[in-house]
């Protein structure tokens, strides 16, 4: 029992939500990365991890899947640590787009920045800023940071990586356009490989809940006690998640759910209740915004039932 809210989050409640939405047949599994089309549309898991390290989970919580865009949150944190807020803000904005995640960018007319680090263009520019002398150094730094968040070693799914590497022409185009405007350095192919690899990191729903709980716990993994990010940058990550994490659904999400969150095209969603817990849902069928249909429904119900919306001021 995680007793943080008006209605405590119990295994029973998670089981009820899982039962309620297991039969939901809306949405379609992502197909534009060929390997992702093979995902099982019925896989479904809900996990909640508290800042005390307790974890509740139901469904296919050990099923591995690639993290995809949820990775953008954590690499944004790395770039902030490497370069500082001012430098980062000069290269990547923090404005919501109202466009799809892979939209062909409108680079800001004056600054030439991509809109924010949660859309593909901004995420690629962000990964470009991660320090390291070689591609291997940079990948190892990403792996170590993600390990600190998840509390275990994570590995790249090479089939998904290669699948996106050979078909990700749109992301390649975004990178070259940004190179033209000098928003990227010359390591275009190296950075794209790193970006495709960070997206292809394998996680399960429990990992995602712990990664979200690490953000809820001000950057310290609640189980291992390891710090994954300097505490002063956690608010930056949560701010861009809140305003941009759900792409062109971010406004409605803020209104309905009211929590910083991030979704990915393989069907994962994380949401953070600052100071309290991390929530993760995995279910591959996506809505038109590129977010998990069951994931959005579960988060909305959890937020309403447990009064988790950040602006809920309930009478006790
Ligand atoms: N790797 C995917 C892409 O760049 C990530 C997109 C996502 O999860 N929204 O297209």
Question: Which percent range fits the helix content?
Answer: 40-55%
CATH class of the largest domain: Alpha Beta
Query: Helices and strands: which structural class?
Result: alpha+beta
Task: State the domain count.
Answer: 2
Which segments are poorly predicted (pLDDT under 50) over 5 or more consecutive residues?
Answer: none
Mean pLDDT: 94
Number of helices: 11
What is the overall shape? globular
DSSP strand content: 5-15%
Structure write-up:
- With 316 residues, this protein is of the alpha+beta class.
- It has two domains: 11-67 and 204-307, Beta-lactamase; 69-199, DD-peptidase/beta-lactamase superfamily (Beta-lactamase, 3-Layer(aba) Sandwich), CATH 3.40.710.
- The protein is built from eleven helices and seven strands.
- α2 (71-91) packs across α9 (231-244) and α3 packs across α7.
- The longest helix is centred in the N-terminal third of the chain and has 21 residues, at 71-91.
- It is globular and about 55 Å long.
- The two termini are 19 Å apart.
- 53% of the residues are buried.
- The mean pLDDT is 94.
- Bound molecules: glutamine.
- Glutamine binds at residues 68-69, 101-102, 120, 164, 171, 199, 264-265, 290.
In short:
44% of the residues lie in helices and 9% in strands. With 316 residues, it is α+β, with helices and mostly antiparallel strands.
Descriptors:
Beta-lactamase; two-stranded antiparallel sheet; five-stranded antiparallel β-sheet; binds glutamine; 316 residues; alpha+beta; 2 domains
Compile the SSE list and pairings:
Blueprint: H1 11-22, E1 45-50, E2 55-59, E3 65-66, H2 71-91, H3 120-128, H4 135-150, H5 158-167, H6 169-180, H7 188-199, E4 202-203, H8 205-216, H9 231-244, H10 250-256, E5 261-263, E6 268-273, E7 277-282, H11 293-306
Antiparallel strand pairs: 1-2, 1-7, 3-4, 5-6, 6-7
């Amino acid at each position: 029992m995680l007793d943080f809210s008006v209605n405590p989050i119990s295994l029973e409640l998670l089981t009820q939500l899982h039962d309620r939405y297991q039969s939901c047949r809306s949405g379609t599994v992502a197909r534009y990365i060929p390997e992702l089309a093979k995902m099982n549309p019925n896989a479904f898991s809900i996990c909640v991890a508290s800042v005390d390290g307790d974890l509740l989970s139901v469904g296919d919580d050990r099923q591995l899947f690639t993290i995809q865009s949820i990775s953008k949150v954590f690499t944004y944190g790395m770039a902030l640590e490497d370069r500082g807020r001012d430098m980062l803000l000069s290269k990547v904005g923090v404005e919501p787009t109202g466009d799809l995640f892979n939209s062909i960018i409108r680079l800001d007319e004056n600054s030439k920045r991509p809109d924010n680090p949660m859309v593909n263009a901004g995420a690629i520019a962000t990964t470009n800023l991660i320090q390291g002398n070689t591609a291997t150094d940079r990948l190892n730094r990403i792996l170590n940071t993600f390990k600190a968040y998840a509390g275990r070693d994570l590995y790249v799914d090479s089939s998904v990586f290669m699948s996106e590497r050979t078909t990700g022409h749109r992301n390649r185009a975004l990178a070259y356009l940004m190179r033209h405007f000098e928003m990227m350095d010359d390591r275009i192919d190296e950075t794209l490989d790193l970006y495709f690899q960070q997206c292809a990191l394998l996680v399960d729903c429990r990992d995602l809940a712990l990664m979200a709980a690490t953000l809820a716990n001000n950057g310290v993994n609640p189980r291992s006690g390891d710090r994954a990010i300097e505490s002063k940058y956690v608010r930056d990550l949560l701010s861009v998640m809140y305003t941009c994490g759900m792409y062109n659904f971010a406004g409605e999400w803020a209104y309905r759910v009211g929590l910083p969150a991030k979704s990915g095209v393989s069907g994962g969603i994380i949401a953070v209740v600052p100071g309290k817990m991390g929530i993760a849902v995995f279910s591959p069928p996506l809505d038109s915004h590129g977010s998990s249909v069951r994931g959005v429904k579960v988060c909305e119900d959890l937020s309403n039932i447990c009064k988790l919306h950040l602006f809920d001021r309930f009478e006790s």
